[in-house]
Amino acid sequence: MSELSLAYIFHQQQLLVDHNFQLPRVEKLASDLSFHSDDQVIARDLLDNEPIPEGLELIPIRQLLPLWSTKQFEQASRAIQLLEWRRNHKFCSHCGHATEAHASEYAMICPACGYHQYPRVQPCVITVITRGEDEILLAKNARNTRSNMYGLIAGFVEVGETLEEAVRRETLEEVGIRVKNVQYLASQPWPFPSNLMIAFKAEYASGELCLQEEEISDAQFFKFDQLPEIPFKGSIAHAMIMHATEGTTVADDTREWL
Ligand SMILES: [Zn+2]
């Protein structure tokens, strides 16, 4: 008789939880993804026609973030990313044969040609930019039409680029200004879908604000004491904005900072 496992059961970007937003415990199946660090935690996808067990409901993951501890969020984040990776690597990208999960590593292996596919992380830079002693640049994402939230400049690192070059390029592309004194702050794994957010601070150097309209619908330098709506606590953007405007210190461990 096996013990029940704590289960992350996903359906699209939603997770099964009970009415107290806690995870269910279930019998482990051979096809479940187990966490190598802890066999009593599993992850799987809810099948399309599978009924939702009584007492449980599907909740969008983003709604759960503010309710969970950083540790819970990180485990959920790992579960989402590993499941998505497994779903997207059912076949060998080299020869097209069906793959098999490695017994002890996070790897999908091709039995025909031996090719190993590992989970990939996408590095993404995010930058808090200040001007003078009391102004911060905040930008509104053009795709966000539902709220009036202002966030930070962010974008993916391109092949062959350093992180600092990515910071300077993204800032110039999105808002038309040049920055100086680019400095690393912290990092946070972010599972939408499989990013590693790498946080920097920088200072305004030159140029007038000129927006890339497909990406940014508005950007302004705001006085520290007159901020608009900003990202929720628990996100790295929130911690970065607090660091810039209120001088909260950056912890050695990002987990303690958020
Ligand atoms: Zn192959």
TrEMBL record:
GO terms for biological process: NAD+ catabolic process; NADP+ catabolic process. Keywords: Hydrolase, Magnesium, Metal-binding, NAD. Residues 119-244 form the Nudix hydrolase domain. The keyword NAD applies. This is NAD(+) diphosphatase. One of its GO terms (molecular function) is metal ion binding. It comes from the Bacteria. Pfam families: NUDIX (PF00293), Zn_ribbon_NUD (PF09297). The lineage of its organism: Bacteria, Pseudomonadati, Pseudomonadota, Gammaproteobacteria, Moraxellales. The keyword Cell cycle does not apply. Belongs to the Nudix hydrolase family. NudC subfamily. The gene is nudC. Its cofactor is Mg(2+); Zn(2+). Its EC number is 3.6.1.22. One of its GO terms (cellular component) is cytosol. InterPro entries: NAD-cap_RNA_hydrolase_NudC (IPR050241), NudC-like_C (IPR049734), Nudix_hydrolase (IPR020476), NUDIX_hydrolase-like_dom_sf (IPR015797), NUDIX_hydrolase_CS (IPR020084), NUDIX_hydrolase_dom (IPR000086), Znr_NADH_PPase (IPR015376). Gene3D superfamilies: 3.90.79.20, Nucleoside Triphosphate Pyrophosphohydrolase. It catalyses: a 5'-end NAD(+)-phospho-ribonucleoside in mRNA + H2O = a 5'-end phospho-adenosine-phospho-ribonucleoside in mRNA + beta-nicotinamide D-ribonucleotide + 2 H(+).
